[in-house]
Amino acid sequence: MNDTVIGVGVIGCGEIAQLMHLPFIHELPSFRIAALCDISVGVIEKLGAQYGVEALYSDYTALIADPAVDAVVVCTYDHGDIVAAALAAGKHVFVEKPLAFTPEEARPMVEKAEASGLVAMIGYMKLYDPGYEIGLEKIATIGTPRSIHIHDFAGRFDTYGALYTQVKATDIPADVMATSRAAAAGRIEASLGPDHAGYVGLYLLLLMLGSHDLAVLRGAFGSEARVRYAQPVGEDQLLAVLEFGEGVPCYLDIGVAHYEWWDEFLHVHGDTDEVRIQFQNPYWRQASAVVTVREAAPSGASERRLPGVPDTAFRREWKHFADCILNGAKPRTPLSGGLDDLNLAVAIIKAMPPKPV
Ligand SMILES: NC(=O)c1ccc[n+]([C@@H]2O[C@H](COP(=O)([O-])OP(=O)(O)OC[C@H]3O[C@@H](n4cnc5c(N)ncnc54)[C@H](O)[C@@H]3O)[C@@H](O)[C@H]2O)c1
């Protein structure tokens, strides 16, 4: 690394790497794309030509060994071994969410990252959303909440994904990803235990979609959430009641709907005021979360929208990663937060009625 430009190796060049990470690494002056890795040779050849990158690898250990790589971004399905190898080789790490599939595999990742002195952070981009930051400032002014509601029914990804050109892999044997998913499912079953091993699908929903929301909650109210109630609602939806602080209830409902719009919010009910942070489709660049405040006013009730800032959460997290590496800033989304979220996800599932495989 020269003093100001960080060489990034991208491991896993699929959807999120292509739609969000590669364009920002390419564009931001603190970074250069030093190397690409994917098990699809077709994908890395096309992306290498597109971004002018010659170091192309289908084996992540070779990318990690490349001296031009100062930092890696991990955008594969299964992250644990790759993160461990990158840290062992002295590379800074930016890993997509979820950190890992189980707390058992995440714990050594956190320990290794903390012992390494390297920068390691999770791509919880919603925590870098300017609307979220504005909303948190407002939440801090309304006193102890009477209740909190976090809701994520997502929405259609395809409409927003279609805004970008994506190179799709056509050369990966079908059984490779199936084997990887089956291995992860086996580890999850072991972690959930025999009484709850039948909830792998809902647990994965909590990780792949809901971990964003667990992180959003943690960013607002800390990591001491207790689980008071949890219930499956069919195969692709769940409901839980958490508790923060001195008995503040938090309703969490996560599911998959197919709305044309994006349906995800954090709503905080204070004693006299309410604050709602409405998130936008994550693939919609420049669209920050919208904050609505309802509060008592001299003439009665008032409702207003706080003006957002036109910026992209993914771009802001990359700028923060650069600030951590170049200026010693402390990561706002360290790996330890990902472990907290995995612990909470397991606790939510274990609070559900037993469901053996
Ligand atoms: N922050 C967000 O909003 C967001 C959005 C989407 C996905 N994600 C996360 O990003 C990760 C990737 O998701 P995606 O949607 O891009 O998936 P994807 O399937 O489109 O891409 C994954 C890529 O990794 C490659 N790959 C798999 N195993 C590999 C290995 N061992 N070595 C090298 N390459 C390998 C695959 O060939 C594929 O191209 C997941 O962890 C997901 O949770 C985050």
TrEMBL record:
InterPro entries, sorted: Gfo/Idh/MocA-like_OxRdtase_C, Gfo/Idh/MocA-like_OxRdtase_N, Gfo/Idh/MocA_oxidoreduct, NAD(P)-bd_dom_sf
Record GO terms (molecular function): nucleotide binding
Any Pfam family hit: GFO_IDH_MocA
Gfo/Idh/MocA-like oxidoreductase C-terminal domain: residues covered: 206-352
User: Where would I find the Gfo/Idh/MocA-like oxidoreductase N-terminal domain in this sequence?
Assistant: 6-124
Write the protein's name. Predicted dehydrogenase
What is the taxonomic lineage of the source species? Bacteria, Pseudomonadati, Pseudomonadota, Alphaproteobacteria, Hyphomicrobiales
